[in-house]
Amino acid sequence: MEILISLHRVLLCMDLFILRHGKAGKSSGGPDDAARALTRKGEKELKRIAQWMKAQEFCFDIIATSPLQRALETATVIAAVLGQDDKLTTWDELAPGGDPDTVCYKAVQEGNDARVLVIGHEPGLSRLISRIISGNPDSSMIIAKGGLAKIRNYSFTTRPSGDLQWLLTPGQILSMR
Fold first, then answer.
1. Percentage of the chain with pLDDT > 90?
2. Would residue 28 count as lying in a domain?
3. How far apart are CA 50 and CA 58, in angstroms?
4. Fewer CB within 10 Å: C terminus or N terminus of the chain?
């Protein structure tokens, strides 16, 4: 029985999904940046991305978002289309300047076999992915607005780690419909 429990633990793996917020209004660089909302085009594109996610039968244990307006709106669209409004939560660490290791720690708290979606901003999300897949937060990559990444076998022991399974632009996602 103990061997079966150990084998079961080995077979469990966390999937971490990382989504950049959709297209938003122009940045003024000022203090009102947190209030920038999605554009109509950005919201429409996100609904189509969410419909693709639904067709792929995505289901999350938690949908964590930055508190900034454009990320909250993105999360709301995704959760509504997936019928997972009850999974929505806000993590301050997903805001620009947040600590990627804290995001990693919070994600792993959902359990070994969890499916976690985090929604935030650049350059923080690229640094988060880079930190997880290479241990170095400074790899050169950019997630497009509305882009989605999947990290398989995500864990956090001495440092976050996992395997980048895919990183898709909105155009790639929508062409798979």
1. 73
2. no
3. 9
4. N
